[in-house]
Design a protein that fits this description.
328 residues, alpha/beta, UDP-N-acetylmuramoyl-L-alanine:D-glutamate ligase, five-stranded mixed β-sheet, 13 strands, globular
Length: 328
């Protein structure tokens, strides 16, 4: 593979996050299942937003958050996602580029509005998401730039985007292009409910184009249809070159066909909001892999990034991750 222009190219739902603190009682009153990501329509997004307390609004989306983390480490990320030519679309584009992420997908001139995710953070720092996907889910194969894919060392796909057929085909197109050019294909499972919706597809991806998978313990259990962690480890070991399994306070595991590496969880302060923890863990790992660092060091960088982001509201780092990790 010729020298790549980008360490990682991410593909996902381009979303503006609206993050607010809420009580467990509020979730019950609104019929919202805690810890879940629920897809909602524009009418529900409007009514729920009106009931939410004060909070923050920031560009988000799982893969976009990961690209922002890679930029904070000093990497060279690019992002592919779809926005409308509306106010939130302009905000998303500005935030992404200002954060050091290349983002050149033209804003659509018609179709649904730019996506937004209403994120409710309960006192235990758990986050529950209610997402209006808008135009973000209408990514198409035509939105995938072959020249960009040829410049990617690693392609990172967001499992959430698998809910729409055109977006699914866009990601498959991107995977084919990256593999053809000698790059690595990675994916995050995103959510256990997402796996339930697309179980057969996710299994097929693990047995086919994917080299690397990110999953937490619950997602892994749904994927392998077993709550036994040892069973899950052996399942991914037989199918993938690398799997990074996050275990919350227990740290994480790096699984390859030949070994299992235990990674200790980092801690900088009391958790405030777990939004983006998995996204930033992936950022540290992917940055490390793009720099050809040892797998244990990749896992450590992931833990550092995850520990930083849960210290504050919002899914993106507020401190320079390279400095925090002792890389500069």
């Amino acid at each position: 593979m010729s020298e790549a222009s980008y360490d990682v190219v991410g593909i996902g739902n381009a979303i503006v996050d609206v993050i607010s603190k809420a009580s467990d009682e509020f979730l019950v009153e609104q019929g919202i299942e805690k810890h879940s990501m629920t897809l909602i329509d524009e009418e529900r997004a409007t009514s729920l937003y009106a009931l939410m307390g004060p909070g923050i609004e920031a560009s988000g989306g799982s893969a976009a958050n990961t690209m922002a983390g890679i930029a904070s480490f000093g990497g060279r990320p690019a992002y592919v996602g779809k926005v409308r030519d509306d106010q939130l679309g302009q905000v998303f584009g500005h935030d992404t580029r200002a954060g050091g992420v290349a983002f050149d997908v033209p804003a659509a001139t018609d179709g649904p509005a730019t996506a937004r995710s209403l994120i409710l953070v309960t006192p235990d720092a758990a986050r529950t998401m209610n997402t209006f996907l808008g135009i973000s889910s209408l990514l198409e194969p035509a939105d995938i730039d072959p020249e960009l894919m040829a410049k990617a060392k690693i392609l990172f796909c967001e499992g959430y985007l698998w809910d729409v057929e055109s977006a699914k085909q866009a990601m498959r197109t991107a995977m084919d292009l990256v593999k053809t050019n000698g790059g690595t294909c990675a994916m995050t499972a995103s959510d256990s409910f997402c796996i339930d919706r697309h179980h057969a597809d996710f299994v097929e991806l693990c047995e086919g184009p994917l080299d690397l998978l990110f999953a937490n313990r619950a997602e892994l259990a749904r994927l392998v249809e077993s709550d036994d962690l040892a069973t899950g480890i052996e399942w991914v070991r037989e199918r993938l070159a690398m799997t990074f399994i996050t275990l919350g306070k227990e740290g994480s595991l790096v699984v390859t066909p030949d070994e299992t590496i235990e990674i200790v969880a980092e801690e900088f302060g009391a958790p405030v909001d777990t939004t983006g923890a998995g996204d930033q863990y992936a950022a540290g790992v992917l940055y490390g892999l793009s720099q050809e660092l040892p797998l244990a060091e990749c896992g450590r960088l992931g833990s550092v990034a995850a520990a930083e982001v849960i210290e504050h509201l919002g899914p993106r780092p507020e401190r320079n991750l390279a400095e925090l990790a002792g890389l500069r």
